[in-house]
C-alpha cells in the first residue's frame, strides 16, 4: 500500500504501451504500480539513449541507486519499507490490441488543442477567461464538431456574437481540425518529466485516450 496519499507524485501520469511498444493510454500512478506489482506490466526506461525493461523488483533496486545519485530528477513514492521512483512509461506484457477511439469533443480537449490561445486575437488566457465559440454559429445551423468549435476569449466571443468570422470581420489564426490523438497528452509531454513519451507518441497513428 502507498503510505502517503498527499504526496504530489501521485498526481503524475504514466504512459502505457502494448506489448509491441505502441502507445495505448495514460493512467495514474496507483494503477501503474498495481500492474507492475501483479507482473502484468514492466517499466520501460531510457538510459543513455537506450530503452531498458524492468519488472517491479528490479525497478525498485535500480531506483534505490537513483535515489542516491539522481534524487532530484525523479518523482518519488514512499512506502512503509522503501522509496521508489515513479516510472514514466510501462509496457503491458500480454496486451497486443490497439484500440482506435475518436478523441472526445469536450471543453478540456478543445482548450488543449488550441493551447489556451484565443483563435481570433491569438493571445493566451487562463481557463476562467476562455469560452467555446462556434465558428459557424448554431443559430445559422452550425454544429458542435471539431471543425466548427474553437477556443475564444470572452472579449472576442462577445465581439463576434452570432455571426460568422467574415460577417464580424474577424480572422481565425488556425483552421480548426480534429486532433489525431488526445491533445492533453501533448500538453503533458511538453513538461520535462514526460519527454520520454515523445518517441512513442510520434509513431502513433491512433487516438490516445486519457483515463
Mean pLDDT over the full residue set: 82
Overall strand count: 10
Q: Helical content, roughly?
A: 25-40%
Give the biggest beta sheet. 6 strands, mixed
Describe what you observe in this structure.
The protein is an alpha+beta fold and 211 residues long. The chain has two domains: 8-100 and 182-210, no CATH class; 107-168, DNA Binding (I), subunit A. 25% of the residues lie in helices and 21% in strands. The protein is built from seven helices and ten strands. The protein has helices at 29-37, 56-69, 107-113, 154-160, 165-168, 183-189, 198-202, and strands spanning 13-17, 23-28, 41-47, 50-54, 76-78, 83-85, 89-92, 130-134, 149-153, 209-210. The strands form three sheets. A six-stranded mixed β-sheet has the order 4-3-7-1-2-10. The radius of gyration is 21 Å and the shape is elongated. Residues 1-5 and 204-211 have low confidence and may be disordered.
Brief overview, please?
The protein has helices at residues 29-37, 56-69, 107-113, 154-160, 165-168, 183-189, 198-202; strands at 13-17, 23-28, 41-47, 50-54, 76-78, 83-85, 89-92, 130-134, 149-153, 209-210. The chain is α+β, with helices and mostly antiparallel strands.
